[in-house]
Structure formats: C-alpha cells, structure tokens
Q: What sequence folds into this?
C-alpha cells in the first residue's frame, strides 16, 4: 500500500514546491517579524496579511516524539518516530526522524537535527529530519 500523501492547496503550494526543490520554506510576517508554520495567508500572531515566504535554515531540535509501535499499513512494518521539531526560526512542525535507531535511547530531546527531503511522487517530497552531522 503506498503512503498517503498530502495534497497541496493554494495556501501550501509554496511549501511543497520548496520541498520538491530541496528547500524548507516558511512564512514570516512583515509587520511583527514572526515566522510561522503551517502555511496560511495571514499571521497567526497579529493577523496581518502582509506576509512573505523565505527559505529556512533547515536546522531544528527535537522537541517531542512518540514511537509508533503499530504502524499503519502504508508506513511499513517497523516502529517509527512521530516527532515535533522546533525549527531554529521558531516554529514547530510535525515530522518523522530518520537516520538513527527509532528508540528512546537514540532520540534525545533537544538533539540537533537537519532537514532532508524524501521524494514520494513527482509532486511531493516530504521534509524529514535526521541527526545533524549524519
């Protein structure tokens, strides 16, 4: 069974186009200067519609995680981490951690991470995170 993939919308198209190009794109409010995720046409901090898209650093730390011991059929048979990472720019995003054992011993809170992109289709590359330096 193939993995269920997101469907880009007009509000999220810039994000998915960035992922396809190997770039993590966020939005930032031009009025209050706060970055945010997920994509939307207005700032969730001050409600301004004066927002811009920019390339984020792709650096993050592990904020929280759970190890799914009973994966859905489209996610394989092995346990995997469902994580929330805190991007250097401030926003948090849900993702998966790859490139290390999927155990509590290997997944340490606040560990430095770096984004990588996994091509799933011609249109979708998923932003996943791996330990920095790996």
A:
């Amino acid at each position: 069974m193939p993995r269920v993939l997101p469907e880009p919308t007009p509000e999220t198209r810039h994000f998915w186009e960035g992922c396809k190009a190997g770039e993590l794109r966020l939005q930032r409010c031009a009025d209050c200067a706060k970055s945010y995720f997920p994509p939307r046409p207005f700032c969730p901090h001050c409600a301004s519609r004066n927002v811009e898209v920019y390339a984020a650093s792709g650096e993050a730390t592990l904020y929280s995680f759970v190890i799914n011991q009973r994966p859905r059929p489209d996610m394989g048979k092995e346990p995997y981490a469902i994580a929330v990472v805190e991007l250097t720019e401030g926003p948090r995003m849900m993702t998966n951690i790859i490139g290390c054992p999927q155990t509590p011993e290997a997944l340490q809170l606040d560990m430095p991470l770096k984004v990588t992109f996994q091509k799933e289709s011609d249109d979708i590359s998923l932003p996943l995170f791996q330990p920095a330096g790996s």
